[in-house]
């Protein structure tokens, strides 16, 4: 991956610190938010579609809900950091986004349908609190086709009083080339599975040379804002102190990750 200038983005959660009640409470809060906005959707077909997606989302089990929260956080981290990273190094990378996700079941499932239908909405919600940083003077010409052609949508201003001066169509970024696949038939998903398995084992100090593995995994990651850990640590309840082995591994990844800003830019 390093030779191809590939990068690794991760989201992790310690389920041992959460109760079913914690997850269910957080889940219900998100369902309430989704339902709150449905009456503001003006087109009847759009309103009905969103209601169907919200109902499916509400039926997720606690385990699947926690997984989808991690995946939403993962996608937001990927979009936020990869745009800024690759526009400085390989701008043509931003001309196309191909999403391949391991399907839960053959055919459609509640999880797959919820992820596909609601991920863009969650990405937009996240971006309001944490806007996408753009680098002045960088070459964004390959990414321009994802920008709003007639300016950002006005409904955020009209319905919520939120002014948006610029941005890109995250729905187009995520839906243009998106599919759930059988991991047995997709090499990229297999690689992602191996990296996820290695990361999980590393955070549990499961390697005999765990510090070295932490550094190798970290060298594929990209520096996060304010030099926070390069993997997204998800929490949906009260923050807890990470076990010593997790802290050590994360610290090594943080030290080994790639700098966001390219040195000696011209």
Brief summary:
The chain is mainly α and 266 residues long.
Features:
about 270 residues; mainly alpha; two-stranded parallel sheet; about 50% helix; globular
Series of secondary-structure elements, N-terminal to C-terminal: EHHHEHHHEHHEH
Strand order of the largest sheet: 1-4
> Biggest sheet, in brief?
2 strands, parallel
Count of distinct strands: 4
Low-confidence stretches: none
Distance between the termini: 26 Å
Oligomer: single chain
What is the general shape?
globular
Q: Taking all residues together, what is the mean pLDDT?
A: 87
Number of helices: 9
The structural class is mainly alpha
Question: Percentage of helical residues?
Answer: 40-55%
Proportion of strand residues: under 5%
What topology does this entry show?
Blueprint: E1 11-12, H1 20-37, H2 44-58, H3 62-89, E2 99-102, H4 110-129, H5 155-160, H6 170-175, E3 178-181, H7 187-203, H8 210-218, E4 232-233, H9 244-256
Parallel strand pairs: 1-4, 2-3
